[in-house]
Amino acid sequence: MKIVITGSLGNISKSLTKELVKKGHSVAVISSKDERQKEIEALGANAAIGSIEDVEFLTSTFTGADAVYCMIPPNFTATNQVEYYQKVGNKYAKAIQQAGVSRVVDLSSYGAHLEKGTGFIVGSYEVEKIFDALSNVAVTHIRPGYFYYNLLHFVPMIKSAGFIASNFGGDDKLAMASPIDISAAIAEEIVITTSTKKVRYVVSDDKTCNEVANILGVAIGKPDLQWKTFTNDQVQTAMEARGMLATTAAVMVELGDATHHG
Question: pTM for the full model?
Answer without folding.
Answer: 0.94
